[in-house]
Specification:
The structure is a single chain. With about 150 residues, the chain is of the alpha+beta class. The protein has helices spanning about 20-40, 50-60, 110-135, and strands spanning about 40-45, 45-50, 65-75, 75-85, 90-100, 150. It is built from 3 helices and 6 strands. The strands form 2 sheets. Strands 1-2-6 form a 3-stranded antiparallel β-sheet. The relative contact order is 0.19.
Length: about 150
């Protein structure tokens, strides 16, 4: 059986055109608004975007969000979150998620739960860095948060 030849084919990148990119983001905001608001978590009267909402926004932009390199380091567990374009796998955003051994909610939890939360935080942060503007387009404001980004009430 003959071995098939493999060739590297360059992917043609589209130039960024602000008006087109804004239109794309605006359409994605419309598509994802119901998912983001339905899955939002309310804490002390404020609504927060959960990882499911961030992932919906990523998918609407033709991207995938995932985590990698989950490891125990001094003081807790760290994971790396990534947002990649689905069409060519290009890395668009990357962030770190961390669960500290000193966090009151997490210090007693089992290891697998801490690892899962570190991944959730990493994915949320990576998505937020790439797509925070989309949540603003939904008519919501963002505030700094490890996992949750608040939506306007």
């Amino acid at each position: 059986m003959a071995e098939q030849e493999k060739a590297i084919v360059p992917v043609q990148q589209q130039a960024m055109v602000p008006a087109i990119d804004y239109d794309r983001a605006s359409k994605a905001a419309g598509v994802c608004k119901q998912i983001v608001t339905t899955t939002a978590l309310t804490i002390q009267g404020r609504k927060y975007v959960r990882v499911e909402g961030w992932q919906a926004i990523a998918v609407a932009h033709g991207c995938m969000a995932s985590s990698r390199a989950v490891e125990r380091i001094e003081g807790g567990i760290r994971a790396i979150g990534e947002v990649r374009r689905a069409s060519d796998g290009a890395l668009l955003a990357q962030a770190e998620g961390f669960v500290g051994d000193d966090e009151p909610t997490w210090w007693k939890r089992q290891e697998y739960a801490k690892r899962a939360m570190a991944q959730t935080r990493a994915i949320s942060r990576a998505c937020r860095s790439a797509f925070a503007h989309v949540v603003v387009m939904m008519g919501a404001g963002l505030a700094a948060s490890a996992v949750l980004a608040p939506l306007a009430a």
